[in-house]
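Two records follow; treat each independently.
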Amino acid sequence: MQDSGNGDMAQMNHEGDAGSDSHMEHGNDEATPHHHSSGNSEGSVTTTQAKLTVPAEIAPDRSIPLEILITDAEKKLISQFDIFQEKLLHAIAVSNDLQFYNHIHPDYQGNGKFTTNIAFPKPGDYTIFLDYKPAGEAERVSLVTVSVPGTTEATPQPDFTREKTIDDTKVELTLDAPTLKENEDVMLQFTLKDASGNPVELQPYLGERGHLVIVKKGDLLTESSYLHSHAMKESPAGQVQFHTQFPESGQYKMWGQFNRNGQIVTADFWVNVE
């Protein structure tokens, strides 16, 4: 992956002030311990921040380099991170209308700097949730934002379908409650079958049976919009279960990711929470 520390990058400071009028603005926010599906909030609370550097010119559907710096409360670069779910940093990029999703793992260059490449498919605003663990501390979530210039399209209404087919894998979402309510425990079950209707064989993905990201729909995405749930260790063949809580009422989109014979199946679903 390309190191983005080159001269044609627009560097932003922690307050999001642009270096010149030609630079695009990118949001940088303080991180807080995010909501775990298990309710686990152990670990010391340390404020961390992320700063994003991108090219001054961004075009839809064109790969660009990203440079991400992670700093502590005193804005000093954090040099040590703990591995969790097999990676040092999980970067979850979504369009603010939640139509686009990309889960990537930037390369660590040392001294708090991560680099990667990404393409944003269409004009509009994008949020990248950065999920990481400073060494010896609890999981943190920071976010940064990117705007892609151009004419934006109308956002389609949420589709609450509970079954989808991704390539040759059928995925069904079932809930253990007829109505989802805020701050109540819920089990989300993904059932994966092949074209013949037989349960598929799944392999670990990021050290677990599956990976689930949930984002609350809203005009402005924040750290509290983001939920990350861990898969239960035991479940029947072709099934992956997650326990979580939705902290507020509203509409949420979820992306479940599963490893079927080396191919990552990403299934997205909307749910409504009262």
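The next record belongs to a different protein.
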Amino acid sequence: MASVFSVIESRHSVRDYFSYELKREEIEWTEGLFEKVPVVGTVGRLPWRLIPHSPIGSGKLYAPLLEPTSAGLVEYGFQGEALVLKLTERGFGSCWMAVGRAVEKNAPAVIVFGKEAGHTVASRLSRAVFKSNRRKDLDELLTHDSLTPLPEQERVLNAMRAAPSAVNKQPWRFTVTESRLLRVRRAGGRPDWSYMDLGIVLCHGYLAALELFGSARVTRLDDEHYQIDY
């Protein structure tokens, strides 16, 4: 199994795909991920579904979320990004989409996936539009009252810094409070998207800390604030 750090490093949003039909084995493998996806809060494991065709990519994943509360949207982002990283490890490209032809009723976003078409003109243009190659420096994402991260903490924080977000706004801020505890807060943005983004960045932090330290836990402090201890 690949290191989560290398998977996160290779993971990027893909918007241009080859025409490719998912094999039965790939469908069964993907559906097998649903019962093992990690859970961050009290909402529980969401009823993820795979549709093996999509107007973009080869298929898409989504879960109905009839009551999109802040906690539910964080859970959606957390679980969905865990699935994205598994797809990345398997060799699929993927992209979160909250608008467009691929969206599903009662789902705040879908995850389209398939075989990446490579560095086409369309993919270069979409990266320019969405600024997906640009990330804030870590110093810009730390709050003024944060402690200076230790080297191992910095590895976790950089895994979080690499998390995708709607139009690459990175609507979160990090606070290091002690050697095995860091806090994450939502920092503006459109609420339905930025709560999902908060779940996505928590997923990166949780999986990175779990690999690095052998244990990790995410705790909800309130709607805007979570912490990761390890």
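Discussion point: The beta strands are 49-51, 59-62, 93-97, 110-114, 172-178, 181-186, 217-220, 225-229. How would you locate this feature using only the token line?
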